[in-house]
Amino acid sequence: MSAFLQYLITGLGVGCAFALIGSGLVVIYRVTRVVNFAQGAFAVIAAMTVSSLLGARVPHGLAEALAVALAGLVGLLVGLTAIGKPGTSPQSALIVTLGVAVFAYAVEILIWGDQPRSFPGLPASVTVLGARVQSHYLLIIAASALVFLAMALLFARTDLGKALTASAANPYAARIVGIDVRRMGLLSFVIGGALGGLAGVLVTPVQQVTFDGDVVLVVSGFAAAILGDLTRPAATLLGGLLLGVAQAMVAGYLSTSYQSEVALLLMLVVLIAQAARRPMIQEETA
Amino acid sequence: MTTPRPGTVLTAAATLALPLALRDDHLTLYVLLGLAAMVTIGLSMLMGYAGQVSLGQASFYALGGYAAGLIGVHGGPTLLGLLAAPAVAAAVALVVGVPILRLRGHQLAFATLALQLILLSLLGDATWAGGAIGLQGIPHLSIAGVELDRDIDYAYLTWAGVAVTMVVAHNVMSSRTGRGLRALATSETAAAASGVPVGRYRLLVFAVSAAFAGLAGGVYAFYVGYLAPGSFPVLLSVQFVVMAVVGGLGTIWGGLFGAAAVTLLVQLLTDFGTRPGMPSYAPSVLSYAVYAVLLVLVVLFLPHGLVPALRKWWPWHRPVRTRR
C-alpha cells in the first residue's frame, strides 16, 4: 500500500510537469492555432539556466524566478519567428517552431555542453500515510495547482483572457472590436514560454535534463493537452496527471523500460479515437 | 511518353560519371547523399500531395535497414534482404497507416513522431535485433555471386536506387492516381466529390514513401554493415523534413535537390568545424544551426522551396506544367 502511494505521488508530480508543458501548448494554440514544437526547449533552457545560476551562488528562489522570466523572453523570440511574419499559416508555423527547437540545440550545446544537468530541489523527504516521498514532488504538485487555478481565472474571468481566446476563435471579429491579434499571439508565446520554463525548473531536481530531452517533454505535453483538444487547460491537467500516474505505475509494477511507450500509446489511442468521431473528409476553412 | 528532358539527361550523365572522379571519402558522401535523396523524394511526395508532415520518416529507413540487416546476418540471400527492405517498410506503413492517416496536420506530425519513439524504444529492448548495441557484422550485398565490397559499387547501386525512386514517383504522379492526388492536394472536398478515393490514395502515398525510405535503409545496412537504434534518431527524421522543404514539396527534383543541397552544406560546415583549433562541439553545433536556419528561412521566405524558385531561371523551363 505504501509502495502504491509512493508511485501515485511520484506520478502526480511528474504528471504536473507534463501538464505544465501541455498548458503552455494550450495557451499558444488557443490564441494562435500554432502547435509550438519548441515548447520542450523552454523547459530545457530554464533548467540549464537554474543550474548555472545556482553554480554562481545565486540563491534558490531567485535563480528559479530568473530562469522562468528568461524562458518567457525566449518564448517571445520564438513567437516573433513563428508568427511575426504576416501570412504565416499555422502549418508553416509548426515547421518554423520545429526549426527553432533544433536551433535551441545549437545554442544549448554552445552554452552548457551536451552533458545532462541537474540541481538540488527541496532536500527532505516526508512520510505521507506511511509512504516516504521526496518533498520536492509535493512542491511540484502545489505549484502546478496554483498555476492552473491562475490560468482558469485568467481565461474565464478577465478581459485579457477573453481577448486571448477571441484572437483565435475569430481573428477578424477580434480585430474589429479593437483587439491587437498579433500582440495577443506574442503574449501567448510569452506565457507559454514561462509555463514551459516553470515545468523545466520544477522537474529537473527529480529528473535530469539534457539538451535533446525536449522531444520527450514536448511529446508528453502534447499527449496531455490532446485530451482537451489542445484548447482546454482543465482537461490538460487531467491528461498530464493520468499520463504521469500511468507511467509511474508501469515503471513501479512492471518495468521502467516501458514507461515512455505507455505514454505514447495512450496519446495515439486518444488521437485516433478523437479522429474516429470526426468525418473522414473535413470542411476546408480557406 | 515524352522525350527525356535535358535536365534529366544532364543529371543522369553526371550521376554516372561522378563516382569515377571522386576520392573515397567523397564517395561515402555521395552514397549517403543518394540514400537521403531516396527518402526525401518519398517524403516530398507525402508532404506535397497528401499534405501531411511526417516527423517519423526515419522509422521506415530503420525498418528497411533492420529487415535487410537481419536477413543478411542470419545468412539469408542478401539480394532477398534488399528486396525485403522496401517491402517490409511499405507493409508496416499500410498497417499503421489505416488508423494514423485519419489524423491531420499537427496531430499526424506528433503521431508519426510518437511511432518513431516507440520503434526506437522497442528496437532498444529487442535482443533478437541486438538491442541498444545494435546489429553487427551485416555482410556485403552480393548480386548473382558478385559481392559489392567497394564504395564505388555502392555508389552505383545507390544511384540506381535513386533512378528507380524517381521513375516510380514520376509514374505514380502522372498516372490517373497521381491526378487524383493532385486534386486531393488542392481541395479534399472537391476531390472526394469527383470520386477520388481520398483515404485509399493517401494510404498509397504513405506506403510508397515508406518503401522508398525502406529501400534506402536496406542499402545503408549493407553499405555500413552495422545498425543500432541510435543510427536513426528523431533528428534524422527532422533532417529529411528539412531536405524536403528546402528542395520544394511535391516535386521529385525538389527531393533530390534538397537532399543534395543540405547534405553538401552540412558536410562543408562539418569539415570546417573539425579543423584543428575548433572546439570539439563545433561540428554538431554547426549542423544543428544549419538545419534550423535553413528550415526557418525557407518556410518563411521561399514557401515553395528552392526548386520551384530556381525553375524560373532554368533554360529549359516549361511553364505549362501546372502544379498547385
UniProtKB/TrEMBL annotation, chain A:
Pfam families: BPD_transp_2. The chain crosses the membrane at residues 6-29, 36-56, 62-81, 93-113, 133-156, 184-203, 234-254, 260-276. The keyword Protein transport does not apply. GO terms for molecular function: transmembrane transporter activity. It is a multi-pass membrane protein. It is found in: Cell membrane. Keywords: Amino-acid transport, Cell membrane, Membrane, Transmembrane, Transmembrane helix, Transport. PANTHER family: ABC TRANSPORTER PERMEASE PROTEIN, BRANCHED-CHAIN AMINO ACID TRANSPORT SYSTEM PERMEASE PROTEIN LIVH. This is Branched-chain amino acid transport system permease protein. It comes from Actinoplanes digitatis.
Automatic annotation (TrEMBL), chain B:
The keyword ATP-binding does not apply. The chain crosses the membrane at residues 33-51, 58-76, 82-101, 108-134, 154-173, 203-228, 240-265, 285-306. Pfam families: BPD_transp_2 (PF02653). Keywords: Cell membrane, Membrane, Transmembrane, Transmembrane helix. Its main location: membrane. It is a multi-pass membrane protein. One of its GO terms (molecular function) is branched-chain amino acid transmembrane transporter activity. It comes from the Bacteria. It is found in: Cell membrane. One of its GO terms (cellular component) is plasma membrane. The keyword Transmembrane applies. This is Branched-chain amino acid transport system permease protein.
